[in-house]
Amino acid sequence: MNISALVNPVSEGLPRRSSSNSQIIPPSPATSVAKLPTPPATTPKAMPRKRKLRDPKPIWAYREGETLEGEAREQYEQQQQARPSPPPPPTPWQPNHPPSAQPPSYNQGHGGPQSSNQFQPPPAADELHGFERPVSDDPYVYNELVRKLGEFIMNTVVDNNDIRYALEESRHTQVEIEARWGQIENKMTNQRLAGVHETECILKATETHNFRFRSTMTLDQHKRTNGFLNSQVQQSKVPGVQRPNIDYKHVKEIDVFYDLDVPSLEILPAQTRKVLIDSLSHGASSIRLRVTRDAKTNAVLRKVIKSRVANLEISSPQTEWDYRIGVNLEINYPGDFENLSPTVEPGRSSGSTARSKDRISYSWLGAYQIDLTQVIQEHGKNHELELELEPTILLEAGDRALQGDDRDFEKLMTGMLNNLRALSREITGPPGGA
């Protein structure tokens, strides 16, 4: 079956495509990024029941060979005494098993450090050797971008009491960790962010108010991405290949949005309701219910409230796309929606928010899923590319990292960034155009 044929070509005008040349878009001389005023620092509102900050840093942030100090060492020793015996090692992955409709299962068996006097994470498979080894002879030197992403996910998800209480309160509440491909644009010039940097960098949270993130790609980019991902599915299923299966599914759905008032939230669990109401005082314009139906049968598939928790934005000037890492809370709404009125955006009709989605999803390792989606709304068509990280695996790996066993957490962060980079570099055309 030719999966790429699922993408329907259109003849209308294409969205703006950033130049594929390494010199992406020069900054406007009138509004250079370097000259944008820096807003005054503000003191964020303290979150209730937030754990105290670790001084000088959490256990999971210690590198191999570093000695735990103070409270971190005491906490580690207490955790090791209370920790049960590790389960037997997992069975090695077998590449020759028959293809399965479901992603391969994720084995969670791990052992702990061997010494209570010094934190000794297990040696990485990609230890530094030969000319790569630094003067300190460290077997591993952490990646700064990966570490910053890890801190963001740790603070907003794993070590965020409000989120964890909401998740424990109801099995119908989930946390979503997604990354989007798109462009970071200057609000004043409507041009893609450009400045003194030539390589990847994370934007300061205090500067993002000067920019917007636009998640879109051209039809040609959509087709090229579809073709590349289809080839990866086929290559992963070649007998004897040393890689996990990549599975896909194709769905067509319709989303309709409804506004919810505070009284309509009373049927939700207490902590979940508190998070949603707090979002209104932190800049959210409204609380929306998204009702998703099957495009063929019109059956209701999901009723979800999506609440933004935090965003992290990464500029990548050498490729077609920048990235936004988003953390959201998704709550399955148990109430009725038939008597609710659809959301109406200013200056648009009552049906303008309805979205028709033609989506192909690619998943592997039980940890990652890439969604390639064509979205049709009343005011036009858009093509979107997203990567989701499976929340259960993330939370389990994050909790182990807080206990001193960082076998998977940093690897998940590295994998997330590598997936973003791999697709961006594959689809970005050569300098001067394809």
UniProtKB/TrEMBL annotation:
Residues 143-389 form the mRNA triphosphatase Cet1-like domain. Residues 84-102 have a biased composition (Pro residues). Heterodimer. The mRNA-capping enzyme is composed of two separate chains alpha and beta, respectively a mRNA guanylyltransferase and an mRNA 5'-triphosphate monophosphatase. CDD domains: CYTH-like_mRNA_RTPase. This is mRNA-capping enzyme subunit beta. It comes from Massariosphaeria phaeospora. The keyword Plastid does not apply. One of its GO terms (cellular component) is mRNA capping enzyme complex. It holds the Pfam family mRNA_triPase. InterPro entries: Cet1/Ctl1, CYTH-like_dom_sf, mRNA_triPase_Cet1, mRNA_triPase_Cet1_sf. Residues 16-25 have a biased composition (Low complexity). Keywords: Hydrolase, mRNA capping, mRNA processing, Nucleus. First step of mRNA capping. Converts the 5'-triphosphate end of a nascent mRNA chain into a diphosphate end. The keyword Ligase does not apply. Residues 103-119 have a biased composition (Polar residues). Residues 63-76, 126-135 have a biased composition (Basic and acidic residues). It is an enzyme of class 3 (hydrolase).
